[in-house]
Amino acid sequence: MTIQEIQAYLTEFFDSVELVGSGKGEISAPAKIESAGAGEVSFIANEKYLRFLDETKASLVIVHRSVNVADFAEGRSFLKVADPYTAFVFVLKKFSLPRTIAAPGIAPTAVIGEGAVMGEGVTVGQYAVVGDRCRIGAGSIIGPHAVIMHDVEIGEGCTIFPHVVCYDGTRIGRRVVIHAGSVIGADGFGFAPQADGSYVKIPQMGIVEIGDDAEIGANATIDRATMGSTVIGKGVKVDNLVQVAHNCRIGEHTVIAAQAGISGSVIMGRQCMIGGQAGFAGHLELADRTSVAAQAGVSKSFLEPGTALRGYPAQPMRDQLRHEAMLRHLGSMKDRLDELEQRLLKQPHGA
Amino acid sequence: MTIQEIQAYLTEFFDSVELVGSGKGEISAPAKIESAGAGEVSFIANEKYLRFLDETKASLVIVHRSVNVADFAEGRSFLKVADPYTAFVFVLKKFSLPRTIAAPGIAPTAVIGEGAVMGEGVTVGQYAVVGDRCRIGAGSIIGPHAVIMHDVEIGEGCTIFPHVVCYDGTRIGRRVVIHAGSVIGADGFGFAPQADGSYVKIPQMGIVEIGDDAEIGANATIDRATMGSTVIGKGVKVDNLVQVAHNCRIGEHTVIAAQAGISGSVIMGRQCMIGGQAGFAGHLELADRTSVAAQAGVSKSFLEPGTALRGYPAQPMRDQLRHEAMLRHLGSMKDRLDELEQRLLKQPHGA
Amino acid sequence: MTIQEIQAYLTEFFDSVELVGSGKGEISAPAKIESAGAGEVSFIANEKYLRFLDETKASLVIVHRSVNVADFAEGRSFLKVADPYTAFVFVLKKFSLPRTIAAPGIAPTAVIGEGAVMGEGVTVGQYAVVGDRCRIGAGSIIGPHAVIMHDVEIGEGCTIFPHVVCYDGTRIGRRVVIHAGSVIGADGFGFAPQADGSYVKIPQMGIVEIGDDAEIGANATIDRATMGSTVIGKGVKVDNLVQVAHNCRIGEHTVIAAQAGISGSVIMGRQCMIGGQAGFAGHLELADRTSVAAQAGVSKSFLEPGTALRGYPAQPMRDQLRHEAMLRHLGSMKDRLDELEQRLLKQPHGA
């Protein structure tokens, strides 16, 4: 691809894409700024990487429009844009080949249930099993060995990777991606304790609903509701090995990092950001745009939008940082206490 | 189902099931009290939901026998019982349809090993693989794509969901449920360090044994013992993404919430309750009825039955709550220290 | 196997293997010292188990060369070596039967892609899917239901258990073991935030590389790099349910216990030891031989080799233990503060 083609492509997304340098040469691949070589395109979005303006061997570098690159344009070219990171993401997209998960069409070894309705251009991989009465939207890809149980609805343009299991009744929107090994709609963890110490299983009669454009990582688990639905909102991104328990409702465009665990009936707002390994007690509510630090333990509701939480039990960032600073000064508090005692002991008692 | 039929059904489990209200009308589904509509049955077990006595549109509500509902019976009916929650669980069971995991019988694409013995009425789903010399008990269901390796024993009435893997030699009791993606009997994590910094793998020659009526969530992992057995007791409930390492012994009716991690050779008593994301050091022992809070880190044995643990390192609840209260008062301790210093500085030194 | 045969076998690994006792009798199995019976071999590596010298029913016990066993040799035999633990590991290996994961050869139901190259003696289990242009090294075993996507390279002598998924382009060295349900090479968790609160997916164009002799547990996830490679070094051992995010580089012979979570672009040295459920912020670096306690939260780089870390945020062991000791003394600090205030109040103010 020529540099001019990349420039033209980026003007689809940005008002201004200024070329500095010769603009000559073919670009064959994107690369990281540290390791990019001739014929490659990279980017600088962070000031601390500006030293690579000189060092890099990349033929093309995307930078912020405020960066003065005139001195470095000998032998390389620059594109100046308002958001070099996002510009580079679009360049990555341009260069990325579509991954082939399965050959187009329904594999001869795929098992399609009775009454299942397959949209136009659906791909079903080797040995995948699609249950009775399922509806798979146009252009969706069901990877090899995926198991879609009965009465599941999957919208248009979805990608279900190998070894995903969708339990009966799951409803998935459009353009949803589910990575390998995730289990959607297994029974919620509900057991009624009995007088003799044993438990009676509470039937988990609900389903899971996943909104448009959501992406679920590998080996994640999202449990069906006891009644009604566990809801993953539109555009939600769930990382690997995350647990979402029964009856949760996750708001649109919320992002949940790996190994976070969300107990039953949690209601989470829109555009929240949840750190890795964070945990949530059941039945609590978080307002929109709440952010939760990695490994935090959230034990109660936080209803003020935009609150940043941290620690165990999690509290607002300012309080928690003050608390952590206090903890760091425990040693000096003890020293001061020692000294006060010393001074008092030197005084005649009751003087 | 009529209200009288539900009343009659519940008298199988409760001494007294009193009907208040007209008792007229058909009930088509169970529902949550907040969202229940006409023709639906719900329940109130918690005082704070008593306001729904008036608001709900449910046609039938199950309540505790002590609740006075006479004023609310216009247009709806009530059943009064000693334990409305458990009563509702039984109603849920009554309404829940049996889930079809696979068509009855052995699917034509299932692979059954040499010498495998299949009990009466066993179901094996599409593409499931059952190894040589396995024994599958009467009425058990092996889901599509489950892989049961050689020499595995599964008792009567079990449900093995799709994509479960049972390694060779695993022994599973009766009526056990294992959800999708769980791996039972993989090698324990045992490696002997060598002088050059590398490791030699310690053969993991034992097996996993799972007792009657246990239920294992989705994508959980239970490792085989180095020698002997890793034991999951009768009636134990294990949630999604839980790790049980080699040589552990989990006592009967213990409940382990999602993402908890139990290191090797832990011995856990009966009827323990383990919170989500809790962690356990290896080779420790917990008495019966120990409860462990979510995210706690248990670093040593606790041998007193019924102890509630919390925090990191985990300590008995009373100690830990006192400790956490002290932490909350760090700020005021610092203020008091400041004031003491002030006062002493005002005094003539050595006075 | 006779005791003399075991002695001869161990002399392959140790300079000196001294037999004490009659040396008579057949050994049929290894066993734990607590439960070993007649005809079994066990070991004692830890002083606190020395009481079993007398109690055990094992016919043969492997002990450290410094242990005086003459008094206990009536009816049993001892082998004295420099490292009884490692000696016993080798004995375990001697007794362990090779596990049969799949019948030798390519199963008739396995699907092998176009242009795939299979080395000599490769085994591919029932229903396994191997993608186009894959290269599987001599003697490797691909378990039933494993899905190896396109362009994957697997070296000689590997064991891939059932239900593993290797995404396209993954490169695996020699003698690597991957346990059931692990997902290698799923997309890294990378999304560029947009002004409207939604996210654009960042293409994950890199791959995963796994070095020789690595072992990956069950249901673990190792994500592909955005560009370039996520690297698992030679001899690395990764336990169940571990998350390794995109662009990480894990040094040789590092060991990572269950449920640890390693954020993107972490660079970890050689021979590190990572405890269970430990978490790591992104883009940090750890020197060789760093050890991290279970549940620790590592928030920054530690570049001194051999540092032991603990706590949240993780700090060097000495500092953290001092901090934890201080925390335990909070109560007495408060008492001392109370007393100081008492004494000052008794004094005439401003005296």
UniProtKB/TrEMBL annotation, chains A, B, C:
Question: What range(s) does the UDP-3-O-[3-hydroxymyristoyl] glucosamine N-acyltransferase non-repeat region domain occupy?
Answer: 26-93
Q: Does the keyword Nucleotide-binding apply?
A: no
InterPro entries linked: Hexapep (IPR001451), Hexapep_transf_CS (IPR018357), LpxD (IPR007691), Trimer_LpxA-like_sf (IPR011004), UDP_GlcNAc_AcTrfase_non-rep (IPR020573)
Which GO annotations describe the biological process of this protein? lipid A biosynthetic process
What's a single GO CC term here?
A: membrane
Q: What class of enzyme is it?
A: transferase
Say which domain of life the source belongs to. Bacteria
Query: What keywords is this UniProt entry annotated with?
Result: Acyltransferase, Lipid A biosynthesis, Lipid biosynthesis, Lipid metabolism, Repeat, Transferase
| Pathway stated in the Swiss-Prot or TrEMBL entry | Bacterial outer membrane biogenesis; LPS lipid A biosynthesis
UniProt EC number: 2.3.1.191
Catalytic site positions: 246
A single Pfam family, by name?
Answer: LpxD
Reaction(s) catalysed by this chain, per the record, are:
a UDP-3-O-[(3R)-3-hydroxyacyl]-alpha-D-glucosamine + a (3R)-hydroxyacyl-[ACP] = a UDP-2-N,3-O-bis[(3R)-3-hydroxyacyl]-alpha-D-glucosamine + holo-[ACP] + H(+)
Entry-linked HAMAP family: LpxD
Q: Which family does it belong to?
A: Belongs to the transferase hexapeptide repeat family. LpxD subfamily.
The record's listing under NCBIfam families reads: lipid_A_lpxD (TIGR01853), PRK00892.1 (NF002060)
Q: What's the subunit arrangement here?
A: Homotrimer.
Purpose of the protein: Catalyzes the N-acylation of UDP-3-O-acylglucosamine using 3-hydroxyacyl-ACP as the acyl donor. Is involved in the biosynthesis of lipid A, a phosphorylated glycolipid that anchors the lipopolysaccharide to the outer membrane of the cell.
Protein name per its UniProtKB record: UDP-3-O-acylglucosamine N-acyltransferase
Record organism: Chlorobium phaeovibrioides
